[in-house]
Amino acid sequence: MPAPQPTSGPTAPSPVDIDVTVGDAGAIVTAAPTANAVPTTDATPTTDAVPTTDATPAQPAPHPRAHRRALLRLGLLAAVLAGAAASLLLWDPAAVLAAATGPWRMPVALAAYAFGTVAFLPRPALNAGMGLLFGSMWGVPLAIAGSAMGAIVAFALGRSLGREALRPLVRGKVLIEIDRRLSEQGFRSVLLVRLFPGAPFQAGNFACAFSGVRFWPYLAATVLGVVPTTAAYVIAGASANSPGSPAFLISTSVIAAMCVFSAVSLWRARSRSSA
Predict the structure, then answer these.
(1) Interatomic CA distance for residues 259 and 198, integer angstroms
(2) Secondary structure of the chain: what % helix, strand, coil (to 5)?
(3) pTM value > 0.90
(4) Helix axes 246-274, 227-238, angle to 10 degrees
(5) Beta strands in 31-73 (DSSP E)
């Protein structure tokens, strides 16, 4: 009798190999399955990168003690200016200038002029007084020198006593832009302020002192910028005794033109800001 043929079932779609052999007495012997090597994956877990920000650290707040010292210096500046203005109730600069004679006349005039600018006396009156006392030839250079001395004193006071306390208070587009222009374009900006007839002299001094403008450009622009207005008022004061003279007529015409220019400029600036 022939030996039965080995039969096999359907092949399962498996990756495992099965060995089928015919044993003794025609028995079908199935070998233990041998599993193929399980593939391994070298999958390295990746972690999402944490985004970094280039955040600029905030500026540290000023120390309370330093802030108090700055406020004390600002109070001292206000006291000095108030004392200088109040002292005018006790003495008359014109009387002091008239009383000065001999070699002390010019130094006293310079000191009185410089002190007058710090005490908020109007420069047109000081310039006219210089013209009355010294005439046009000496009055113009003395008034320019007095303006420079007053500007130096105001700058020193404002820079040493008030700048540290007031700089953190600069807010708003207008103040920031003024501070930027004075700091970056010192000579040009100060020169334009001095040439503008309607700009108060002492306000310009302290605005420059509180900003970042350097001293030498500030002084040079001040000396150069005050020449036109100073000369006009000194010549007008020197020729006030002869109102029909060409010098008086020309100087007063220049003063009138500067006043009109200042008024028109202020009106246009106000119109632009309100638009």
Answers:
(1) 7
(2) 65, 5, 30
(3) no
(4) 140
(5) none
